[in-house]
Specification:
By secondary structure, this protein is α/β, with parallel strands linked by helices. About 45% of the residues are buried.
Length: about 600
């Protein structure tokens, strides 16, 4: 902890020196004018953040060529496992660079230039990484959309980001669910055309091992894909003709690297823009320290590459450190709940990164799926995070800030709370990878993150800090409930109830109450072997009362087999609130992982009441 304290103090008191040291291992051209320059005060002018302004770099060069030059060319970059067990491939750094260069040349041959935006709609695969890095090599901006989003959701993102090209696969399976990716992409293109937005080309990877002549068989009719010779291009045909070297384009450090859309569980998706130099340095640094990475480690993150965790942990942060990464296309529970542990054993994974949602989902299958032996399980976050072997942890706490991160807790008037306390989480100064803007809408960016309290970047989270300076994220500002005039955090109520041995997952929302104003409506997923009884309800209520107080006792308990979640694993509280209120007008549910749960939620609602 002493070394952490020294490094943290330097990172916040002299960030220019600290981040210059972190950047020394990476290749930049020309000297920067300043390491970190920013304005967080909307009253003084537009919000802006500049990192190493004036310097040029290329992320693809730094995470591939640079590592190959260090002797890692034959080091495995990826072990890829398909949807079904034992459908495995691997690729080393040398061959990955070769494929990336070929794809970059494909893009150039189709007229793609620096600054063009390309949408990628593919399952977790080596080709998805290839497409991302091919864009980065020539200065094109990629936006990855989770494979399986609806055509409408895909079209919205294509239009919003002004994408000029789409990259997809013919089709895929996610668990047992068939996803006609090309068909969805075709419909998205049609929707874009109707609104006046067209794309140059759609590159299609042949993903499923299917005999295409069998498609004429009636039994394979669901596998049929349409082909537009004016737009569609086979990936393999284009790659066969491409040269295997492409010189990197040296870009300003603030050049956009990618756009990534929020999941949309809380409303209109936002296209978040990440920069080139700052994102590269910060993700490399967090990967190194948060996962305690050393040479020879095999890293496995369960997040899909369509989300920021997948981008950071499994691509840019990992490759920047020369890591070997396990990439799983399917779900953690297909075909069996022990899929993750089988992969960990087979591929000798020693750093495993997953979400609490995955662990909670496994709990309902029994303890045997939660106790892999001899494995190091880690979870980290880039802003508030423990460092392995360094930070003592406390249950439920995000612990302490990472290097360069200066958190603050604000009261409702925007005044900073010193010492222990609870309030809104904010940050006083930027770190290199902080979000730069929202695509095409800088005013919304300023309004969302900076307008409420000038001089602070506000996240919308409620946080608690103890006497040791440890932080607990207790919920979103809009997840706070007013029950009989008292404000309650849904996360605190959920934490109390989830402590019962029978509970696998829990989610709490509010529903109108004629006397209290609002009351707590609790959705509960039980572990296998437990029954929902009046006795259990009594025990769960006592859990809430004992930990928080009588006001935190849910009025309604609703047993369900699963919770509705986005494809990134976030619980869709908006949907649960609709169910609690009996409102079947759910709005856009294209981000939902498994829509079948909706019927169960409404069908069992009367029982819960």
């Amino acid at each position: 902890m002493e070394k952490y304290g020294q490094m943290y103090k330097k990172s916040i008191n002299d960030p220019a020196s600290y981040w210059s040291d972190m950047a020394k291992d990476f290749v930049f051209k020309y000297s920067e004018q300043s390491v970190l320059k920013f304005n967080f005060d909307i009253l003084k002018g537009p919000i802006s953040i500049k990192f190493m302004e004036g310097a040029l770099t290329n992320v693809c060069y730094n995470i591939l060529d640079r590592n190959i030059n260090k002797g890692l060319g034959h080091h495995i970059a990826y072990y890829w496992e398909g949807n079904e067990p034992n459908t495995r491939r691997q690729i080393n750094y040398h061959n990955l660079l070769r494929e990336v260069c070929k794809f970059a040349n494909v893009l150039k041959s189709l007229g793609i230039q620096m600054g063009d935006t390309i949408v990628i709609y593919m399952p977790n695969s080596i080709e998805l990484v290839t497409a991302m890095l091919g864009c980065a090599r020539i200065g094109a901006i990629h936006t990855v959309v989770f494979a399986g989003f609806s055509a409408e959701a895909l079209a919205d993102r294509i239009r919003d980001a002004n994408c000029v090209m789409l990259i997809t696969c013919d089709r895929a399976y996610r668990g047992t669910k068939f996803i006609p990716l090309k068909g969805i992409a075709d419909l998205a293109i049609t929707l874009c055309n109707k609104s006046g937005h067209s794309i140059k080309a759609c590159i299609v990877k042949r993903h499923l091992e299917i005999n295409y002549q069998d498609e004429m068989n009636d039994n394979c009719s669901h596998l049929l894909i349409k082909w537009d010779r004016m737009v569609d291009i086979w990936w393999h045909e284009a790659m066969e003709m491409a040269d295997d070297y492409c010189a990197p384009v040296w870009l300003d450090t603030e050049h956009p690297l990618f756009i990534l859309y929020t999941s949309g569980s809380t409303g209109q998706p936002k296209g978040v823009v990440h920069s080139t130099g700052g994102y590269m340095i910060y993700t490399a640094t967090t990967f190194k320290y948060v996962f305690n990475h050393t040479d020879g480690d095999v890293f496995f993150c369960t997040a899909d590459l369509g989300w920021i965790t997948g981008h950071t942990a499994s691509v840019y942060g990992a490759l920047a450190n020369g890591a070997t990464v396990v990439l799983l296309e399917g779900t953690p529970f297909h075909p069996n709940p022990d899929r993750l542990w089988q992969l960990i054993d087979d591929l000798r994974v020693n750093t495993f990164y997953t979400a609490p949602t995955v662990i909670r989902s496994l709990m309902k299958f029994g303890d045997k799926y939660l106790t892999p032996t001899g494995k190091q399980k880690q979870q980290g976050a880039p802003m508030l995070t423990p460092l392995p072997g360094c930070t003592p942890i406390k249950p439920g706490s995000a612990t302490l800030p990472f290097f360069g991160v200066v958190p603050a807790i604000l009261n409702k008037h925007g005044q900073e709370i010193i010492g222990p306390g609870t309030g809104q989480l904010a940050f006083k100064q930027p770190w290199p990878s902080i979000v730069r803007t929202l695509i095409g809408n800088h005013q919304r960016y300023e309004r969302t993150y900076f307008s409420k309290f000038p001089n602070y970047f506000q996240t919308g989270d409620v946080v608690r800090r103890d006497t040791d300076g440890y932080y607990w994220i207790t919920g979103r500002c809009d997840d706070t409930l007013n029950v009989s005039g008292h404000l309650l955090s849904t996360v605190e109520v959920e934490s109390a109830i989830s402590g019962h041995k029978a509970v696998a997952e829990v989610a709490v929302v509010s529903t109108p109450h004629p006397i209290k104003g609002e009351c707590l409506y609790c959705f509960v997923v039980l572990k296998n072997g437990h029954q929902f009884t009046n006795e259990l309800i009594h025990e769960l209520k006592n859990k809430a009362r004992a930990k928080i107080g009588g006001l935190a006792t849910p009025d309604i308990f609703h047993p369900v087999s699963m919770l509705p979640k986005t494809r990134s694993g976030k619980i869709m509280r908006r949907i649960l609130a609709k169910v609690a209120q009996g409102d079947s007008q759910l709005g856009d549910i294209s981000t939902m992982a498994d829509e079948i749960i909706i019927d169960e939620l409404f069908a069992t609602r009367q029982f819960a009441l």
